[in-house]
Automatic annotation (TrEMBL):
Domain N-acetyltransferase: residue ranges: 11-167
InterPro entries (alphabetical): Acyl_CoA_acyltransferase, GNAT_dom, N-acetyltransferase
Name listed for the protein in its UniProt record: GNAT family N-acetyltransferase
SUPFAM superfamilies: Acyl-CoA N-acyltransferases (Nat)
Length: 174
C-alpha cells in the first residue's frame, strides 16, 4: 500500500519501513510503555523486526513512522486500521518513545493523521480503543476532541489479563 508522507511544523510522518525496527525496539521493549499495548514488551530486536514487518505490509494497517524534520529516526508511530465492511471508518493507534514525551509530539502527529483521514480520505469517523487506566492516552484523545462513546467490560485479553476497553470517537462533523 502506498500512502502520503504527512508533514507538520516539526514532524515528518512517513511510511513505516523495516529499517525502523532497531530505532523502535527500545519503545517496544519498554515494559511500562507496553503495559497498555495489545501485546507485551518485546524481548529481542528480532521480535521487534517481525512486528514492524507485519505493520509495513499494509492491509489492514496504514502505519506512519513519526520522525523529526531534521532526523529520520523513528520515534514511534501512528497507525490507521480499517476493515472492509466499514470503508469510511478507521481505528487510530499510536506509540511514542518516552524520550519524546512532554513536547507535544504525539498530539502533533496524531492530529495530522486525523486531518489526513478527514480531509484527504473522506472518512466520516475515527475511533480509538483505550484501556481505562491509560490516562495519558485518554487525555490526548480528549484534547483532540474525541468523545468517550462506550465502556466495554472485559473486552480484551491482553498480556496483563482480561481488560475493559473505552471507545473514543471523533466524527468529521465534530
Amino acid at each position: 500500500m502506498t500512502f502520503s508522507v504527512l508533514l507538520t511544523e516539526r514532524l515528518r510522518l512517513r511510511p513505516l519501513r523495516l529499517e525502523d525496527a532497531d530505532a523502535l525496539h527500545p519503545v517496544f521493549a519498554d515494559a511500562d510503555l507496553m503495559r497498555w499495548w495489545s501485546s507485551g514488551p518485546h524481548k529481542s530486536v528480532s521480535e521487534t523486526r517481525e512486528y514492524v514487518a507485519q505493520n509495513c505490509e499494509g492491509e489492514p494497517w496504514q502505519t506512519w513512522a513519526i520522525t523529526r524534520m531534521q532526523d529520520d529516526t523513528a520515534l514511534g508511530w501512528v497507525v490507521f486500521i480499517h476493515s472492509k465492511d466499514r470503508p469510511n471508518v478507521r481505528e487510530i493507534g499510536y506509540i511514542l518513545n518516552r524520550s519524546a514525551w512532554g513536547a507535544g509530539i504525539a498530539r502533533e502527529a496524531v492530529s495530522r493523521v486525523i486531518r489526513y483521514g478527514f480531509e484527504e480520505l473522506g472518512l466520516r469517523r475515527i475511533y480509538a480503543d483505550v484501556d481505562p487506566e491509560n490516562m495519558s492516552s485518554i487525555k490526548l484523545l480528549k484534547v483532540l476532541g474525541f468523545q468517550q462513546e462506550a465502556h466495554l467490560r472485559q473486552e480484551s485479553k491482553t498480556h496483563i489479563g482480561i481488560r475493559d476497553s473505552l471507545i473514543f470517537g471523533l466524527l468529521q462533523d465534530d
